[in-house]
Amino acid sequence: MPSPPPTGLKHNRLIVGMTGATGVIYGVVAMQYLRTLGIETHLIKSKWAHATIKYETSYSVADVAALATGRSWPIRDMAAPMSSGSWKSDGMLIAPCSMKTLAAIRAGYSEDLISRAADVCIKERRPLVLVVRETPLSAIHLENMLALAKLGVIIFPAVPAFYTRPKGLDDIVNHSVARMLDCFGIETDGLMPAEGRWEGFRP
Ligand SMILES: Cc1cc2nc3c(=O)[nH]c(=O)nc-3n(C[C@H](O)[C@H](O)[C@H](O)COP(=O)(O)O)c2cc1C
Ligand SMILES: *[C@@H]1O[C@H](CO)[C@@H](O)[C@H](O)[C@H]1NC(C)=O
């Protein structure tokens, strides 16, 4: 009997979406880490994620696409496998998730492959984690998040913790990405900074 993958996942396969909210580095670091674990990743980037990759990071769009250990799929390709619930996966992480994509998912308006793959995760009861990012939040944003949270979608705002005494942005990003991947039961020791798991005040 082959032993199960040591990653905590059943199918060892995750879908990752990146949209045009600021903070595309969260998705990039998640992809890099999932690659080191040998998890099969399928990446879908929106047009505005391409813009933030260029604007906010030192990576090219091609560098980011190459992080996928499965494939990087065109967002307009509605015939891609994750368009169907019959294609198995362990769920989907959208990091970052814009308010526009949040709204599309909430409404079930699956006009591109990111919102369709998320729609499939909801209907198949597979984990869906949305790293939403906006501030301040309007009642529209909050209602969309509430509706999805009630369906079991994990609303994961990109909000740093400070109990780790972060020394810089890398610490903050790694800790947040570790907590995002915790939601899937993935082993996150390589990302979790010292003091990254709260164990009460130390003497
Ligand atoms: C530099 C930049 C930063 C942005 N930051 C955010 C953000 O944090 N949250 C958000 O909801 N939209 C943000 N937007 C706007 C989205 O990119 C825009 O709504 C877009 O239509 C989202 O489409 P998508 O979800 O298909 O990527 C930003 C746009 C740019 C250019
Ligand atoms: C962030 O995590 C990566 C992947 O495990 C690691 O290589 C890097 O050193 C970490 N960065 C910091 C600042 O801890």
UniProtKB/TrEMBL annotation:
GO cellular component, one term: mitochondrion
Location in or out of the cell: Mitochondrion
EC number(s) per entry: 2.5.1.129
Keyword Secreted: no
Binding site for dimethylallyl phosphate: 163, 179
Chain sites annotated for binding FMN: 20-22, 46, 98-101, 133
Function field: Flavin prenyltransferase that catalyzes the synthesis of the prenylated FMN cofactor (prenyl-FMN) for the ferulic acid decarboxylase FDC1. The prenyltransferase is metal-independent and links a dimethylallyl moiety from dimethylallyl monophosphate (DMAP) to the flavin N5 and C6 atoms of FMN.
Similarity-based family: Belongs to the UbiX/PAD1 family.
UniProt name for this protein: Flavin prenyltransferase PAD1, mitochondrial
Organism: Byssochlamys spectabilis
Lineage of the species this protein comes from: Eukaryota, Fungi, Dikarya, Ascomycota, Pezizomycotina
